[in-house]
Write a structure and sequence with these properties.
about 575 residues, alpha/beta, Rossmann fold, Ubiquitin-like (UB roll), six-stranded mixed β-sheet, 17 helices, binds zinc ion, exonuclease activity, cytoplasm, RNA-binding, nuclease
């Protein structure tokens, strides 16, 4: 560090040390998920959020992507706390994969704790789950002091209730971290966003505002959750005598509350269907957020013995996820539930999140062909309200904060740019907005901000079936296998290690049709035999194998213009 730039502050403990602050966007991806922000001083680090992202469809067998936490592992002695803003997967979903290594206490709401514990139980033994340290915080909790940081929560609205923003006092000034939010004066389960507190921080002086920017390109304000209060009742009334399904995202407890209230009014019992819906409804009921009589809920199995027009199914799969409850139902392969003729299926979810158009179209098609009446956003208003504020909401928060600097978060690069333009329209110089991308660092000294040295981050893939990290090499192999096939050369070897180059066997799958390509197979075999003879004096089989695989790759590409996955291995004869 340049000594001249070093700013020292006398701390309350009497020490005199470097008082600079770094804000690091450690996670984030093109789809604006995988949220993770790091606040770092010379002595301490706190983290806000730790979410998963969703892979491109070309990433074979990769179910989720998570932030690369190598930077934090290298500074483990400085980690003081992980704060989680709200109960969405792209803000908490990566915790089970990294918490064991990071070993940092988690500070969050009751609902988020409940959701994280469920995810931990999926991956760890009970004792390990109990080892994770949780600290409950609410907007009423006193300021939490963690080294150089003092953190106070305040309430915000979103599609999942009990979201929080954080006022983080740092040696450089107060930072407001407000992830996904909207302004809702009539939310279903929680309280309206605490605009007064945000304004008060603004009056006291805010160094930097980190604000949601996802909805900034649309004019106006997002509607209140309350706008849907009548929606479900109206539909249920018209659906007398019919089977009813409503699908929504599993974390949207307020929406579930509205669906359940409407169902009970129409004397229907509730069936939660699908793992994610069952899990989140169970956690919410245990925590008292869906406080209806137990007798109103029955299981999928019990539902088989009920008249179907006395039930409402709340079912997972609103994005057409393969293998989800609704998707299997639409193909007539659900197992427990049979889709009745003229069933009513209501989609109450964001109609257009990235990457789901095709599976949703297929789902709508299958359900319609199976004889259901399908209600979705394109043909019906008031089926869904967004959890994200529009330009009006975001402008309000930005203006109230009166921050010196701004970092748009939770949106794509294009949305970040739109946020910058919105801020400029407020008369704020655009040099005060920093559109941080993954790994980028904003450094504060003497209350002034400038971009710091980037943190190196690599993609981290998770295969959901094993719930473990997946090497990029494996992902690459899968891609190659699916596009180019595989070419295996089997080389006989005797127990003394002597190779038999003349007896090479070749097996291929998905590469070429062998029967029509006998000549190529013969040439390949001869090529490998010749190569092996050349390598016959080499002792290190692994290096021979690697060289041979490379050579075969070149040979086949020249012959066929294709690049199958190549495997050379020996078999003891
Ligand atoms: Zn969210």
């Amino acid at each position: 560090m340049n000594e001249e730039n070093k700013v020292n502050t006398i701390y309350s403990d009497g020490t005199n040390r470097d008082a600079s602050l770094k804000i690091i966007k450690l996670g984030s991806d093109v789809g604006a998920t995988k949220n993770m922000t790091v606040y770092e001083t010379a002595n301490d680090i706190i983290i806000v959020d730790c979410g998963i992202g969703f892979p491109d469809s070309e990433l074979f067998g990769v179910d989720v992507v998570i932030p690369d936490v190598t930077y934090l592992l290298d500074r483990k002695h400085k980690l003081r706390g992980l704060f989680v803003t709200h109960a969405h997967e792209d803000h908490l979903g990566a915790i089970p994969y990294v918490i064991d290594d990071l070993d940092v206490p988690i500070y969050t709401s009751k609902l988020v704790q409940g959701f994280i514990k469920e995810r931990l139980k999926d991956k760890y033994q009970k004792a390990q789950v109990e080892n994770v340290s949780f600290n409950l915080i609410t907007p009423d909790t006193e300021e939490i002091v963690l080294g150089d940081f003092k953190v106070k929560a305040f309430g915000v609205n979103h599609s999942v209730p009990f979201g929080m923003g954080f006022a983080i006092k740092t040696p450089q000034g107060t930072v407001l971290h407000i992830a996904d939010y909207k302004i809702d004066f009539t939310p279903v389960l929680d309280k309206p966003i605490e605009l007064g507190k945000i304004a008060r921080y603004g009056d006291e002086g805010v160094l930097c505002l980190l604000s949601d920017c996802l909805g900034v390109t649309a004019e106006g304000f997002t509607k209140s959750e309350k706008a849907l209060n009548e929606t479900f009742g109206n539909f249920f009334e018209k659906a007398e005598g019919r089977q009813i399904f409503v699908t929504t995202i599993s974390s949207n407890i307020s929406r579930m509350h509205q669906i359940i209230s409407a169902a009970l009014k129409h004397n229907r019992k509730i069936v939660f269907s699908g793992r994610s819906i069952e899990q989140s409804s169970r956690v919410s009921r245990e925590l008292g957020y869906l406080s209806f009589e137990d007798s109103n809920f029955i299981t999928e199995k019990e539902a088989m013995n009920y008249k179907q027009d006395s039930l409402v199914y709340i079912i997972a799969g609103c994005y057409g996820q393969s293998g989800s409850g609704l998707e299997r139902l639409s193909r007539g392969e659900h197992g427990s539930i049979t889709l009745e003729d003229n069933a009513l299926v209501i989609f109450s979810a964001d109609p257009n999140p990235p990457g789901v158009q095709e599976p949703v179209e297929r789902l709508l098609h299958n359900l319609t062909v199976a004889g259901s009446e399908v209600i979705y956003s394109e043909i019906q208003d008031n089926l869904h309200v967004s959890g994200h504020g529009l330009k009006g909401d975001i402008t309000t928060i930005t203006a109230l904060s009166k921050a010196k600097y701004y970092i748009p978060i939770g949106g794509t690069a294009a949305k970040q740019r739109a946020y910058t333009n919105m801020v400029r329209d407020l008369g704020i110089d655009r040099s005060r907005v920093f559109e941080l991308l993954e790994g980028e660092v904003l450094e504060f000294r003497n209350g002034e901000a400038k971009l710091g040295e980037k943190v190196e981050v690599k993609p981290v893939y998770i295969d959901g079936r094993y719930r473990n990290e997946l090497s990029p090499v494996v992902v690459k192999d899968r891609e190659q296998l699916s596009e180019e096939g595989v070419f295996v050369a089997v080389i006989p070897v005797d127990s003394s290690g002597k190779l038999f180059p003349e007896k090479v066997e070749i097996v291929t799958r998905g590469f070429i049709y062998v029967k029509d390509s006998q000549a190529l197979m013969d040439r390949s075999r001869k090529y490998i035999t010749d190569k092996l003879k050349k390598f016959s004096n080499e002792k290190d089989w692994n290096s021979v194998r690697r060289k041979l695989e490379k050579d075969i790759d070149k040979f086949l590409f020249k012959e066929t213009g294709r690049a199958p996955l190549i495997i050379v291995h020996t078999i003891v004869v």
